[in-house]
């Protein structure tokens, strides 16, 4: 927005003030995310910049909190750092175990949410779909219903999931399956939203053309439809993964000590003994989210290019 | 040559109308079968669990399954009947039963919800239940005078059926009177309605702040050239993609007593060292952090609406002599209303149910209704937690319905 030539002094003043205000708001948005990065290299156990850090004295910085991420929870953290030390890290370090859990749970819940969600989005974007509006509202609702209500419901349901068919069977609390199912439910709205958005620009005559040339419905899907909507599907999957990767309330309610994830460990860290090790985890997570954001942006532009929409 | 008056048919001789209807219903079935697996999944992992949980808000058999004799007496005698010897005999029989089943605590807990301080009455009376001799009325009253309290009898009558509205009464700060009526609890005991009100007021405040902050930057993004707008958009999207716990941690680091902001203020001499401002672990902390977390949800819908507003309208207004303020107020602002509505509703819906941030940075006075639900869950007050959840859910679903009517859920966009 350029300043028009006819602007009077007051408008000129407002124009500059407006830019100052916008800059301040952008700083408000981004500063809290960037501030953790330098602080995670603090040599002292403080949550603020020390004098040495401000003067860029190398002694003020250290990797000790990243080191703690590996050693915390180990059997023999002070042993020589050879193969067996790393095996110890892989087996016992609390944060490493949490990372493994987060990735396993995130992976499977993403698979479930993406496969079911993409199929449903294909159905929902057909004009013949009956009760489209209400079904869409139901499928998006896990994003809208407060997480505490979902977690409370699952807490009771998982203690006896077979109650819906009137029998008793095992529990789903403190199981990987339980957490995966819960996280898949939470990720579904994101897959539905991104894939239906991609399908709006999809030319249905392409699949009719494939069918008229003799392709079976599944062949049409894999050879014609899927390659075109793939960017949307992948963005949806990434959203679903991030949702699972960042979810803590359901884990608090239904997971056992074996299913501790990274957010669950952070929750402990913030609530109980807050140590700068949290900041090193936070830094790693910020870097991961930058990578994910970049991927989604690239996919969005690619999708728009494929569909012949000028990128905006 | 075909006869033009004969109905149109397909190649195999079926009437065209019927063939078309069959094809359409086949297409409908196909579309539905694509959605069916997910719908089933969501029903099982989402709708049924919530439904079962809500059932607990109106169903609690802690007392009713132990007090069959009393239930029979309550059935035979209408509301308001003073408890006679038969009633006390039934009570004594039930207390003996509770002693045998070791369930006096559970039954007492149920009555305790509506008449606080009665759990011990049940446990202690059940302990001595075997020694009770007729006349039971005198014997029980001798054990504890509280058994003569009509409030307890009214509470037991209400609890003698497992289906109850008691938990919704508690959750709306109301109580039963001795004669079976319903009244509001004394003003200083009204915690739930007050907390609901506070949750809604704070959510509205956060929505308002989000709107104030989102409006200028959405406008800037919408009016900048595409390449630069995309670059700045990253500053909005990065927080959106960053873990909630990371953002909350960062704010703790920034705002705490020995944190970055206070240190800067002290070193600038704006605040004295012992006058550090408390900005976290209280209501202020909840507001600041939730505003930061929800801001992208306001910016994105505003931006997508502002992007479509043509600058020529504003220029036309200016050329006709409107001041820049009038142009903004009468030309630009009305065109952004759809975006304002979409963003504000979404932010408000998400804020009302917020749990994590208030739990971590809210301290004592920054807690919202979700935190109270969690509190009652941790104390095993499941039915009360369910009733509070039911009320919160009703509020959220109403807002969701409104959002669907005004904005349309298919307009929901992520980045």
Features:
heterodimer, A: 312 residues, mainly alpha, MetI-like fold, 13 helices, B: 415 residues, 3 domains, two-stranded antiparallel ribbon, 18 helices, 68% helix, flat
3D structure, described in words:
The complex is a heterodimer of chains A (312) and B (415). With 312 residues, chain A is mostly helical. Chain A folds into 2 domains: 61-92, no CATH class; 96-306, MetI-like (MetI-like fold, Orthogonal Bundle), CATH 1.10.3720.10. Chain A has 13 helices and no strands. Chain A has helices at residues 9-39, 51-54, 64-71, 83-92, 94-124, 132-144, 147-159, 176-200, 204-212, 217-245, 249-254, 262-271, 277-306. In chain A, helix 5 crosses helix 10 (217-245), helix 6 packs across helix 8 and helix 10 (217-245) runs antiparallel to helix 13. Chain A is globular, with a radius of gyration of 25 Å. Chain A starts with 8 loop residues before the first helix and ends in a 6-residue tail after the last helix. Chain B is mostly helical. Chain B folds into 3 domains: 18-55; 68-189, no CATH class; 193-411, Orthogonal Bundle (MetI-like fold), CATH 1.10.3720. Chain B is built from 18 helices and 2 strands. A two-stranded antiparallel sheet of chain B has the order 1-2. In chain B, helix 9 (192-223) runs antiparallel to helix 10 (226-241). The longest helix of chain B has 40 residues, at 16-55. Chain B is flat and about 95 Å long. Chain B starts with 15 loop residues before the first helix and ends in a 9-residue tail after the last helix. Chains A and B meet through helix 1, helix 5, helix 6, helix 7 and helix 8 of A and helix 1, helix 9, helix 10, helix 11 and helix 13 of B.
Short description:
Chain A has 312 residues and is mainly alpha-helical. Chain A has helices at residues 9-39, 51-54, 64-71, 83-92, 94-124, 132-144, 147-159, 176-200, 204-212, 217-245, 249-254, 262-271, 277-306. Chain B has three domains: 18-55; 68-189, no CATH class; 193-411, MetI-like (MetI-like fold), CATH 1.10.3720.
